[in-house]
Specification:
Length: about 350
């Protein structure tokens, strides 16, 4: 059955609204996906300021929703065609989450629609299905500023966490080291640009958790080591570029080492066909990270899949899709139980 969901995301420094439809044939269509980035508002502080973020969500969410609805209407899907509203209910900065969720609740109430609270990580986990017909189960590496996890995605609502960071997320490591080196915020893209001019073999950095028999990550030792080198040995622009290249290589190496372990565990359970290895989150934008993970996937017999960048970083289309998939399951269960209220919409 065809379903159309309005999605809202506001858990960090992006306000986003989207309309996503899944047709009778199961094909997913993003009818609109609008995003307002607050990055310039936070850049001067070198990181996201929760109070500023929440206020900015309040200022922009109405206009973004109007825009998202207008774009969907231009494609022939008016507001009356929306079946449900989905919003990020956590984890995230609570002030921002409350703005998006309250907006979604008001919208749903006023139109008599169901509201589905979505876990932000579930949005990332399923985001690949906005553009790729990836079947369950698949292996997911989620690498963003807030998260660094390996997930075994068995189905909608059925996730096993194979590993997570025991301190910083990979994106956070990029951002904090970039800040130490005076590269501004967000640091990931700036550090990558510097790294392109440097020699990755110049500095030896610690290889955290090497040999540990799990799939966890750790980046705080790298951060401390990089700060020490920055203070003691970085005197010229070339030194800084070399340190950036060495840091980027170290982050990529740990992502590869831990993903390799997860791939072997996944294969042990599912056998030898060519399952998907999906990489999502802002760090997936990094070319070195991407190419090394892609090479690993090829070596281990996985198909490397990375959603387009717009769906890798925070967006509302992934929240709409996660809500849609959950709503479809709820509706199917209600049909089965003969629940007329949900069945009749
Ligand atoms: O997924 P995302 O937009 O937001 C969340 O954290 O949920 O990811 C943002 C993170 C930031 O830490 C940013 O520095 C990092 O992704 N990032 C990068 C690159 N582009 C974004 N890190 C390394 N290289 C990049 N090119
Ligand atoms: Zn995110």
């Amino acid at each position: 059955m065809s379903l159309c969901v309005l999605g809202v995301e506001s858990s960090c420094d992006e306000t986003a609204v989207a309309v996503v439809r899944r047709g009778d044939d199961g094909a997913v269509e993003v009818l609109s996906s609008v995003i307002h980035s607050q990055v310039v508002k936070h850049a001067v502080y070198g990181g996201v300021v929760p109070e500023i973020a929440a206020r900015s969500h309040v200022e922009t969410i109405d206009d973004l929703a109007r825009l998202a609805l207008a774009e969907a209407a231009e494609k022939g899907v008016g507001v009356d065609a929306i079946d449900a509203v989905a919003a990020t209910a956590g984890p995230g900065l609570i002030g921002g989450v409350m703005v998006g969720l309250s907006f979604a609740k008001g919208f749903a109430l006023s139109r008599g629609l169901p509201l589905i609270g979505v876990n932000h990580l579930e949005g990332h986990a399923l985001s690949v299905r906005l553009t790729h017909d990836v079947p369950f189960p698949f292996l997911l590496l989620l690498v963003s500023g807030g998260h660094c996890q390996l997930l075994h995605v068995r189905g909608v609502g059925d996730y096993e966490r194979l590993g997570t960071t025991i301190d910083d997320a990979a994106g956070e490591a990029f951002d904090k080291i970039a800040k130490t080196l005076g590269l501004g915020y967000p640091g990931g893209p700036a550090l990558e640009a510097e790294a392109a001019k440097g020699d990755a073999a110049r500095f030896t950095l610690p290889r955290a958790l090497l040999g540990r028999k799990d799939c966890d990550f750790s980046y705080s030792g790298l951060k401390t080591a990089a700060a020490k080198i920055a203070m003691e040995q970085v005197k010229t622009p070339q030194d800084r570029a070399d340190l950036c290249a060495s840091v980027q290589a170290a982050i990529a190496r740990q992502l590869v080492e831990r993903s390799a372990r997860a791939m072997r565990a996944f294969k042990a359970e599912h056998g030898g066909d060519s399952p998907a290895f999906v990489v999502a989150g802002g760090v997936a934008a990094n070319k070195t990270v991407r190419s090394e993970l892609s090479a690993l996937a090829q070596k281990e017999g996985f198909e490397f899949v990375a959603p387009p960048l717009a769906y890798c970083t925070d967006n509302a289309a992934m929240i709409a899709l996660a809500g849609l998939e959950r709503f479809a399951l709820m509706r199917a269960a209600a049909d089965y139980d003969g629940d007329k209220q949900v069945h009749d919409g």
